[in-house]
Write a structure and sequence with these properties.
The protein is of the alpha+beta class. It folds into three domains: 130 residues, no CATH class; 100 residues, Macroglobulin (MG2) domain (Immunoglobulin-like); 143 residues, Immunoglobulin-like (Sandwich). 28% of the residues lie in helices and 27% in strands. The strands form five sheets. The protein has a five-stranded mixed beta sheet with strand order 4-11-10-6-7, with no helix packed on it. Strand 8 and strand 9 form a beta hairpin. The longest helix has 35 residues. It is elongated and about 105 Å long. The two termini are 29 Å apart. The relative contact order is 0.10.
Length: 400
C-alpha cells in the first residue's frame, strides 16, 4: 500500500494523478540534437555573412545594394533544412519553436557578422561627410568672412587630405592656411583689397583610404555695399509709431540671421521682420528702450549670422556691419522708449512647451541640433536577441 501511495497522488479535486516517468535517454538525445542544430545555424550564418560581404563589395554603387544583400541572407536560410536532413538529424519532434530558434539564430549571426565586416577597420567605402558655412555669405567692405566646416568620417581625415581654396572676383586663387581641430575647419577671410563681387571657395576632402567628398567644391560668398541699409525716408521728428524699415540681403546666411542696431554706440536693439517668413525686410520704431524723445540719435545697423553643426554645441558666428551711419531726430512723444527690447526665441521654453515672452522676435534663430543614432541595425539585433532569449527560456521551462 505504501508503494502505491508513492506512485500515485490526488489532485485538488480528488482525482488520481500519476507522475510521468522521466525518459533520460530521450532527453539526452534531444539536447544533443538541439546543440547540433544550434551550432549548424550559427556556422551557416557566419559563412553566409562572408558570402554577403563579397556581394556587398561587388555591388558598390548599386542603388539596391542593401536590399539585394539582404535577400541573399534571407533566402539562403532555406539551406538549414537541407543540411539538417543531409546530416540525418531527427526532426520528428523539432516543432515550430525549434525551427524558429534555428532561423532566428542564423539570421542574428549573419546580420551581426555582416555589419561588422562592412564597417571599419575591415572595410570602408564611404567618403567623408562635410557640412560647411560661410558667415556671412554677404558681407560689407571692411568686414570679414568666417568659413567653417564640420568634417566627419568612419575612418580618419587629416589636415593634409583637405584641399581648401578661395578664388577672388579677379580670378586669383589662393590656398590659405586654415586650422583643423576635432573635425572643425576654420578660416577667417580678410578682404584686404576691399574688392566687391562674388568670391568662390572650395573644400575637397579625402580620407586616409582615398575616398573623396566634393560637395563643397564650388561655394560662394560676396562683398556688397548694400548688404544692409535703411530704406525708410523719415529721419526727423520721429514718433513712437513711425516705422523704420531696414533692408537686408536675404543671402547673408543660408539660415535665419538676426538684425539689430545700436543707438549712439549703446546696447543692441533687436528688430522684428516686417513679414516673419521673409528674410529681406525688418521693421523697428522709436518705441523701444534706448530711444529718447526730443533727441538726436546716431544709428549703426548690424546683422549677426550664426550656425550650428549637428551634434556640435559650439556656436559659430560673424557680424555684418553696415558702413553707413544714420542720423535720427525724435519728436515730443511720451511713448518713445517705453517698450522693452525684443528677445530671441527661447528654444528651451519651446521644448518644455512653455509660452515665449511677449516681446520675442517673430522669427527663430539657429540653435544647437542633436540627432541620435538611428535605431536601425542595432534595434533589429536587439529585438532578435530578445526573441531568441524568450524562446530559449520557454523551451527550457517545457523541458522541465
Amino acid at each position: 500500500m505504501a508503494k502505491k501511495r508513492k506512485d500515485k497522488e490526488l489532485d485538488d479535486n480528488g482525482y488520481e494523478f500519476k507522475i510521468p516517468k522521466f525518459d533520460a535517454e530521450k532527453y539526452i538525445e534531444r539536447e544533443k540534437r538541439n546543440i547540433k542544430t544550434t551550432f549548424i545555424a550559427a556556422l551557416l550564418g557566419l559563412l553566409l555573412a562572408l558570402v554577403s560581404f563579397g556581394f556587398w563589395v561587388l555591388l558598390k554603387g548599386h542603388f539596391l545594394r542593401w536590399e539585394l544583400v539582404l535577400l541573399v541572407g534571407v533566402f539562403n536560410a532555406s539551406w538549414l533544412k537541407y543540411i539538417f536532413l543531409k546530416l540525418n538529424i531527427d526532426l520528428s519532434d523539432f516543432g515550430r519553436k525549434g525551427w524558429f530558434t534555428s532561423y532566428a539564430l542564423y539570421f542574428l549571426v549573419w546580420f551581426l557578422v555582416f555589419i561588422v565586416l562592412v564597417n571599419p577597420p575591415f572595410y570602408d567605402d564611404a567618403p567623408p561627410v562635410v557640412d560647411a558655412a560661410a558667415l556671412p555669405m554677404t558681407q560689407e567692405p571692411g568686414g570679414t568672412v568666417l568659413i567653417v566646416a564640420h568634417i566627419t568620417d568612419n575612418t580618419e581625415v587629416k589636415k593634409e587630405g583637405i584641399n581648401f581654396t578661395i578664388t577672388y572676383p579677379t580670378g586669383e586663387t589662393i590656398h590659405p592656411d586654415f586650422t583643423f581641430d576635432k573635425g572643425i575647419l576654420r578660416y577667417t577671410f580678410i578682404n584686404d583689397k576691399n574688392l566687391t563681387g562674388e568670391f568662390r571657395y572650395s573644400i575637397i576632402v579625402k580620407d586616409v583610404n582615398g575616398h573623396i567628398n566634393k560637395d563643397y567644391s564650388n561655394q560662394s560668398f560676396k562683398y556688397s555695399d548694400n548688404a544692409l541699409q535703411i530704406i525708410s525716408s523719415q529721419f526727423h521728428d520721429i514718433r513712437s509709431g513711425d516705422p523704420i524699415i531696414i533692408k537686408a540681403d536675404e543671402n547673408i546666411s543660408k539660415v535665419n540671421f538676426r538684425v539689430y542696431y545700436r543707438l549712439d554706440n549703446g546696447s543692441e536693439i533687436n528688430v522684428n521682420r516686417k513679414d516673419k517668413d521673409k528674410k529681406d525686410k525688418y521693421e523697428t520704431s522709436a518705441e523701444y528702450e534706448g530711444w529718447m524723445q526730443n533727441t538726436n540719435h546716431t544709428m549703426r545697423v548690424y546683422a549677426e549670422a550664426s550656425y550650428y553643426f549637428i551634434n556640435v554645441n559650439e556656436r559659430f558666428t560673424n557680424t555684418v556691419n553696415d558702413t553707413t551711419i544714420y542720423h535720427f531726430k525724435t519728436g515730443d512723444d511720451p511713448n518713445i522708449g517705453s517698450k522693452p527690447n525684443l528677445v530671441e526665441f527661447n528654444y528651451t521654453l519651446y521644448l518644455l512647451r512653455k509660452e515665449q515672452p511677449s516681446n520675442t522676435l517673430n522669427y527663430m534663430l539657429p540653435y544647437p541640433r542633436t540627432v541620435g543614432g538611428t535605431p536601425g541595425f542595432e534595434m533589429i539585433i536587439f529585438i532578435l536577441a530578445l526573441i531568441l532569449v524568450a524562446a530559449t527560456r520557454r523551451k527550457h521551462r517545457i523541458n522541465k
